[in-house]
Amino acid sequence: KTLTSTAAPGVSINNAAIALDGDVTLTGAGNVSLTGAVTQDPASTVDANAGTITVDGNGAALVLAGTLETTNNTAAAVTIRDATTVALGQVEAASGGMVLGDTQDITDAVTQSGTTILNVDSLTVSTASTVTLTNDNTINTLNAVTTDGLFSLTNAQGLDVNGAIDSGTGGVTLLLNSGQLTIDAAGDITAGGDVNLTAPGGI
Q1: Model confidence over 22-38: pLDDT tens digits?
Q2: 102 and 128 Cβ atoms separated by less than 8 Å
Q3: Helix, coil or strand: residue 53
Q4: I need a surface site. Which of 9, 65, 92, 100 has the fewest CB within 10 A?
Q5: Could you tell me where the beta strands, DSSP code E, fall in the chain?
């Protein structure tokens, strides 16, 4: 099953429970907005073309096992917010940014499904629990991060940290499988646990 929109304002679905076992595709202008307890099948793709994608759990769990993709080049090309637990799938936004949480409105653990990755230009995080992103992600820039629990990120390439990281009661792990870890002047790290930084290309 495929839902296709050819004109603005795009696609907006608001329901207590949303089961995505097919594709949502924009071929024209507009954005994609999904509000509710979204469960996405691994074979499902949400393609916003050049629009943004917003998934708002409305205080429920989000299971995103499929793909979210957009060519949008803004800092909030993909936004995931207002949820309990979040299981992320494949995110393809190489020209834009991904936002995980808004003023810590993701209240429980954020994880990744299977071997899916975040292929995004930048990542911004604001949650009230742990964030474990330990697949081979390809992120260029890590912006501000706020959690209250372990923040663990694995990246398959070099990474530029240009925002402060505050993990509250938890630790911070940044593991690069290749490349250099660059921490800019604004990239202070505050953690209640261990801080582990690993980069083959140096820090």
Answers
A1: 999 998 889 999 999 99
A2: no
A3: strand
A4: 9
A5: 2-5, 10-20, 23-26, 31-40, 45-47, 53-64, 67-69, 78-88, 90-100, 110-112, 118-126, 131-146, 151-155, 159-161, 165-166, 172-176, 181-183, 189-190, 195-198
